[in-house]
């Protein structure tokens, strides 16, 4: 989803990792 494959792998698709990065 994002440039960081590591992040998208750790975070479920539901989370999308967007809220985490925005913080």
Explain this structure.
- The structure is a single chain.
- The mean pLDDT is 56.
- This protein has 23 residues and is mostly helical.
- The protein has two helices and no strands.
- It starts with a helix and ends with a helix.
- The relative contact order is 0.29.
- Residues 1-23 are annotated as: Disordered.
- It comes from Nymphaea colorata (pocket water lily).
Layout of secondary structure:
Blueprint: H1 5-10, H2 18-22
| C-alpha Rg (nearest Å) | 7 Å
Uncertain stretches of 5 or more adjacent residues: none
Percent helix among the residues?
A: 40-55%
Number of helices: 2
* Straight-line N-to-C gap: 17 Å
H and E order: HH
- Please describe the biggest sheet, giving its number of strands, its sense, and whether it closes into a barrel: none
**What gross morphology would you assign?**
globular
Structural class: mainly alpha
Q: Beta fraction of the residues?
A: under 5%
Protein name: Leucine-rich repeat-containing N-terminal plant-type domain-containing protein
Label this structure with key terms:
mainly alpha; Leucine-rich repeat-containing N-terminal plant-type domain-containing protein; 2 helices; single chain; globular
Brief write-up:
With 23 residues, the chain is an all-alpha fold.
């Amino acid at each position: 989803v994002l440039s960081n494959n590591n992040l998208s792998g750790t975070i479920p698709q539901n989370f999308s990792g967007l809220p985490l990065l925005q913080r």
